[in-house]
Structures are given as C-alpha cells and as structure tokens.
Amino acid sequence: VLVLTPEKWDVITRKSDDEELSQLVRLLIIDEVHLLHDDRGPVIEAIIARTLRRIEVFHQNIRIVGLSATLPNYNDVATFLRVDPTQGLFHFDGRFRPVPLAQTFLGVRDSERQALVLQREREKAIRKGEKPPTKISQNKLMTQKEMMDEVCYQKCVKFLHDKHQVLIFVHSRNATGQLARTFIDKAANANQRELFLVEKGGEVTSSYLKAKKAMNNAQSRELQFLFQSGLGIHHAGLTRHDRHLMEKMFTEGAIRVMMCTATLAWGVNLPAYAVIIRGTEIFDPQKGIFTDIGILDVQQIFGRAGRPQFEDMGHGVIITNVQKLAHYIEMFHRQTPIESQFQSRILNNLNAEIASGAISNISEAIEWIHFTYFYIRLRKNPLQYGVDWKELRKDSQLNAYLSDFCHSAARRLDVNRMIRYDPINNFVSATDLGRIASNYYIGFETIELINDHNGPISLTEMMTDEMIIALISSCSEFAQIKNRDSEMTELDELASFGANLKIRSGLATTAGKVNCLLQSYISRAFVKDFALSSELYYISQNAGRIARAIFEIALRRGWAQTTEACLTMAKCIEQRLWPFNSPLRHLADVDLLSFNIVQKIESRRMNLFSLYDMDAKDLGYLCSGDGKVIYEAIRMLPFIDVEANIRPITCTIIQIEALLYPSFTWCDRLGGAQRFW
C-alpha cells in the first residue's frame, strides 16, 4: 500500500523508468476528490486521465475510487471516473449525518454596529452607576473587523455557557493569535475569564495537571500564554509537535476554544460541538486582491461541527458582511457544481504527456483531453470555459474548440523550446528541455524565466553562485510564499548572519525572502519564527530539485562554467554546506567527529590534503583533541586516486580512459548501507 500526495504519484507515473511500479497498481483511491476545483485539481485530473488511458490502451485492470464529503455534482465526477451509476455510485445526503447540524448565518452592517456599541456603552455606564448614553460618539464606532470580533465573541460565550467546545476559523496565521488575544481582553473587560477556563473554582484534576505539564514542552511561547486563558491556536506555521499538542489538548478537553485556519478542517479530523467562521474574505496572492472563501471550504469547515461520541447535534456559524449573506445562503441551498481548473495547468500537463511519449500529435492530445474532468464540465457548462452554446450545438464533441485549444498550447510550448511542433502535419515531439521540466516537475513559468534573456535574471553561459541562487529564488514554485511585516526583523537578522551571498532582490519581495531563507538553510541558521520555519522547510524541499534541473539544462547546453556552478549549488543545498566549509562537517553530522574540532580546523583554514599528510600526534596538538580519532576520521572522507589517458578524436570530441583507486576507509554511517537481498 502506498499513501502519497497527488503530486508525488504524478511525478512517478510520468517517468518511463517507473513503469514497473505503475503496472503493479490495481486500486487507486482519491480522497477529497472535490479538490478538483482547487489549484491542485489539474494534478488529480492528470493522474486519473493517465490511469484511464492506461486501462484502455493496455487493458490493465485498475479500480478507481473517489471519496468526498462535499461533492455537489457527484454525477459529473462519477462520469469522469467511469463509474457505473447503478452499481458503483453511492450518495449519502444530510439524512445520513450521524448528528444533525444547525446552521446560523450572520451578516454585519453599520446600523447593527452602532446599536451594539451603544448597548455596550449603556451596560458599562449602568455598572458604574452613571447615566446611560442615548447616542454614541463617532470615534467609538466599531470597524467591521471589530464588529465581527464582537459578534464572534458573543456567539462563543453562548456556546461556553452551554458547556460546549468551540472551533473558530480565521483566514490567516497571524489572525489566530490576534483573535485569541482579543478574546482575552474582551473576557477581562466583561469579567468572563473563568468561562474560558476548564478548571475553575479551585478544582484541579489530574488530567488538567498533565495537560499543563505537557504545555511546558510547547516550542511556541504564545501557545503557553494562551493556554493559561483556556485558549489555543492551530495553523500550518506551528511546528508539527505543537500542532499535535494542540489537537491533543482540545480532544482531551484541556482547551475549550481554539482559533485555527482551514488547514485543520482539511487535514485533521478534530470535531467540536460548534464551529464559527469569522469573516469570509481571504487574500489571493496570485490576484493580489481579497476574494470570498469558497462554498466547499465552508462546507468542509461545517463538517467539523458535531461529535457523535459526545453530542446529539452540531452547530455551524458563519459571520460575514451583510451584502454577502444572501450569496452564502443561496450557495448552501443551490449546491453550485465544482468546476475544473485544468486550463490553468494545460501547458505543464501536455508537456508531461509529450515527454513520456503518450502524445505524438494533436489528435492524440484531443483524445487525451476526453479523459479529463475538464471535458465533462466543458460540455455541461461551456460558458464557464469561454465556449458559446451555439458552438456546442454545432459540434457536440467540441473537437474544433479542443483542436484550437491544443494548437495554442503546443505553440506556446514550442516557443519556450519545451517541445517541437509541426503545425502543418500536427506532429509534436519532446525536447531535452521539456523532458527535464517533466522529470523534475518544473513549471512552464520557471522554464520561461530560464529562457528569458531580456528579464532581470535568466540562465546564461557564465553564472556565479550569487546569480544561480537568485535564479532559483525567482522560480514560480515559490510564488505562493507571502511577505509579512512581522517577519522583517528576523529576516534582517538572517540576512546579516546566514546569507553569505548578496541578496539581489529586497527582503520585502518574495524572491528576496526565498533567497534569504535558502541561504540561511545552507548556513544552518536557527529560525525562531514558526511560520518562517515552515516556509524554510518548504523551500528546502523544492530548491534542491530545481537546482538539479537547472544543472541538467546547463549541461545539455554545453555551458561548462555554469554547469559546474549549478552542480556546486545543488550539492550545497542537499548537504547544507557552503564550498568554503570543511568536508569534515559531514563527519560531525554522524557523530564521527566533534563539531568543536571541525570549527578549530576551519578557523585555522587548514587544507584537507595537508591534514591528510599529518600524523595522529600532530593532529592532536593542532586540534587539542584525540589525534588518533581525528586521524581515522579524516581517512573516512572519499579520497580518490585517478590515473587518466586523454586522446583527442575530433575538434569537439576527446576520449578519456580513467582508472579510479579508492584511498579511504569505508564507513557505513557516513556512506550509507543497504542489504543486497
């Protein structure tokens, strides 16, 4: 059984050398199949289309199962998966829900804001024994954000009075902590702090003491501070340890209210009696504007309301602008079908199929599209994809439209030198550049950046380390990384101590931030901010792959200097070492040598070959350590003696005969080991 992400399986099935693994598959299960509407949807479509084509061409018996809790147009997805509607299609509506769900939709508007502020001012005056005001001054009017916080707080308090736990969903990592602190202030002002505490009235149970002790191990101080008030936060910027700790605290009842992002709804099964969505605006970094949260996200979050093992019902609350209230109510009852996002990734997916040899002409490309969800929805809702109903009536299969669609994509790939396209005979063939992009999962936009010699950065014949790391940082694979004002102080510190190369773009840009974090990763700098740490991990997972792809492109183009520089940078990222660092650090990584000794050797700028020629006694004096251990450790580094004969054949070809002699002591801990069976 293999459990993996769609992207990982996409990479595996693209490559011809992994054909044997693909042939072993007999069952393919896609969980959360409604992600077809998401940015990752085209990857799922590509995988299923490739599998369906394999079933048809090779008569391979593969069963495909799609699972979803929020799928409005399940019939379309069933058609896409080639499901027999009489035997293989199962739909469970709200009647099958273990506990019924109550839904509350709240809209915020100006008049309500004024009334609520006035009510609060009157209550405060009555408590002080003063005359309650009848009007409110302009400077005390709430903003929409403050109003939503107030409404959210009042709803939360109501659930807490009924002794229920609450999950509150916000739409940014920073907003979780901000809302939690706002709740602490509101509870203090209203004398309701005890309402949020699990243990009150002096009663302290053993389970709470265990939870309190466990919270001392939290890496985030903010979590420790909020726990004292009965609150918690959960988002992708926290470390895995802290996220699991928060989930455990909430499950065991040590936390009554938790602020979280949608990551919790999609990735973790953590239900509560009540869930509240505070606000519906989310920032789209690709468009640079605020957009409304999708109805599928709302349904997924509402799906966390209700716990069959504890309660007999659940409650979902959404707080939004009054102008958008009708929109969400209508969407809930109308069940808008999910659409395909395949058009946005057609260039990458088409290139992958051409590179694998599955498509050799435009007719085969059109046939391939017939296997996609995009084709199903194109015929059902052509206006969504820019096709007129008249065109659909003329050509029910839409082959003319798909032909133009594929021709346009092929032309763009040809201009970018990823394929060769013959518009007369409609033939397409892969190039080395296209194969590299497919094998290393590099996007069309990144290849476009590499080829664009008129842009600020591109791949050229003579490149320095600084230029290569700037090119990697500018790739489209990192486009979703955001800049946050709260991170600038730490980024400045990392740029001062962790960056050994000049950062070309400013730290306020995505490329500059990625550059700084990538250099900090190589330098092994400590990152304090958990959101930055999470992004650092993402960058480290992708930068090495991109560096290897750029290395292969430079190698194919015959650029010796750039090829060497790219290979060096790829190794730097993989090994987390700069070229000027001593290779002895590898020994320190596996505890074969003390890191203090390595630092002493680096401070003396000793040449590795000079160290190799020294005896154990001299090494002991030099490093103030056990000379014998240092002597043996140095001989574990892979020194190779080379004998070579070189003969020119033509002006561009030389023949090299080389004999390699290992001159080192093999160590399984350093070089790795594997079984031979």
What are the low-pLDDT stretches, counting only 5+ consecutive residues below 50?
none
Portion in strands: 5-15%
- How many β-strand stretches? 14
Helix content: 40-55%
Report how far apart the termini are. Answer: 21 Å
Which strands sit side by side, in order, in the main sheet?
3-10-7-4-6-5
Radius of gyration: 30 Å
Shape: globular
**Tally of helical runs:** 32
- Describe the main β-sheet briefly: 6 strands, parallel
Mean pLDDT: 87
Give the CATH H-level superfamily of the largest domain. P-loop containing nucleotide triphosphate hydrolases
In CATH's first tier, which class of the largest domain applies? Alpha Beta
In CATH, the topology of the largest domain is named Rossmann fold
Give a short overview.
This protein has 4 domains: 6-71 and 340-439, Arc Repressor Mutant, subunit A (Orthogonal Bundle), CATH 1.10.10.10; 101-334, Rossmann fold; 444-575, Sec63 N-terminal domain-like fold; 585-671, no CATH class.
Keywords:
single chain; 677 residues; alpha/beta; Arc Repressor Mutant, subunit A; Rossmann fold; Sec63 N-terminal domain-like fold; six-stranded parallel beta sheet; two-stranded parallel sheet; 14 strands; globular; nucleic acid binding; Helicase_C-like; hydrolase activity
